[in-house]
Specification:
Oligomer: single chain
Distance between the termini: 55 Å
Protein name: Transcriptional regulator, LacI family
CATH topology of the largest domain: Rossmann fold
Keywords: DNA-binding, Transcription, Transcription regulation
InterPro entries: Cro/C1-type_HTH (IPR001387), HTH_LacI (IPR000843), Lambda_DNA-bd_dom_sf (IPR010982), Peripla_BP/Lac1_sug-bd_dom (IPR001761), Peripla_BP_I (IPR028082)
Shape: elongated
Organism: Pedobacter rhizosphaerae
Radius of gyration: 25 Å
Number of strands: 12
Pfam family, one: LacI
Strand content: 15-25%
Number of domains: 3
Amino acid sequence: MRFETSTIKDIAKALGLSTSTVSRALRDRYEISEETKKLVLAYAEKVNYRANPIARSLKERRSYSIGIIVSEIANNFFSQVINGIESIAYDKDYHVIISQSHESFEQEKLNVDHLASRSIDGLLIALSSETQNIDYLRDLYAKGLPIVFFDRVPENFETHKVIANNFKGSFDATEHLILSGKRTIAHLTNSENLSITRERLKGYQAALAKYHIDFNPDLVKYCQHGGMHSEELETAVKELLPLKPDGIFIASDRLTTGCIMALKNTNPEFAHKIAIAGFTNSNLVELFSPSLTSVRQPAFEMGQVATELLISMIEAKRPVVDFETRILDTELIKIQKAASNKFL
């Protein structure tokens, strides 16, 4: 038996109204009286009316869907960004389609091409660690696809961007280690291609300079896949140990949690002696051992702001020519735990 749904025409016939009046009432248009709106909405709820998204898309030439590209959904930071995106998108009747690049440029491009072929109305994207050439995004943008970048953003691309205050976050974390008495501070970071890598390295260097500590490039280790490969992390840690760092500043969520495990696997005794500060949005920071001073990013807010900016582009009546880069503040969270804590 075929499931039949009520239509606008059915509601109009039952209430003795025109289909245009019912349509406007359902969309809360100003020209329809409050009394008529209440009447229509009450009847629509009674018959369990649901708008036909296909008909709406054909009529308005929009899919009411937004594409999202992140490196990994399981990453604490990105999962919180996605929650922020959904909180705005669903409230404005947009659906979201999420894809993962797994830090691969080829996967990123395949995902974007697929989303574009599905007629998404706009794209929210954090670039993969391998991405250097974004001509394919420029082509889609030139053809009219609204794009907003967040977290990992390109240079020389005129659109909205939403980022954390990476310089200040890394400066604060490194300064905290210095004020704790550390002088040989290593830096574990992401691919050199990424904007967050460059910005956080500058913050680290600025903190060292403020306290007259020489910058040693040998203490900086790049992980091209952002900690997604445990071997990559363990290699970086093994290369740092002979330099005898007494502190380490780590530049991203997965790297921070992964480094703690790599330290324990490589040199468990040393792991509980070194001071660690790093970017992470994990809700279990207080359970980490060794203890961790964390830089927390406003991930949920970042997702909300990026989505609001994208929808403003999608719904603009004229081409958008004025763009902004929103910079959101980070928070330094200092947590002290006894060395006997055996969690993580």
